[in-house]
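JOB MANIFEST
job_type = single_chain_structure
chain_count = 1
residues = 178
[input]
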Amino acid sequence: MKKLIIPLLIITTLTSCSNYKDLNEIGVITSLGIDKPIEHEKGYRLTFQVVNPNSFSNNSSSTTGLPLINYTMEGETLIDAYRKSSTIIPRENVVSHLSLVVISEEQARDGIYTIFDSFERGKQARPNMPVYISRETSAELLLSLIEPIESNPSKSIISTSENNKVMYGISAPQQMSK
């Protein structure tokens, strides 16, 4: 019996999480806005909505900020803008929790195939996130609106759409086919 217990104790002390990262080391991107660029002739203007971990802290002095922070970056391609975002977002970008993508109507009229292609090729992208087209406004502005009841713009957009679908029978989600 001793021969079995000692190896088990040794094995349990040697196990650990090799890919473990603290929340204070990563920037969790929950929403993404895609617009036409302002500073360049072609490309994309991306607005990243990142979780502010200080707003969820138990420390009472640090809970004054908004739960989300918006960062905006332009690039010639989506990947270029994503890479450039690491210069302004102070943590490692993680898009595995991306729950909403908003594309401006102007950008959508130019085509959305390359946008969806970039998401399909991304290693962290979710296959079932909702995509909205913002009419007559930019995606950046839409993601910066804070509702009085809901402090998370992406959650507000999704829940408003769900309420409209249930109560009025409008804005039903459309599945994309390949």
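[summary]
Residues 23-145 form one domain.
The chain has six helices and six strands.
exit_status = 0
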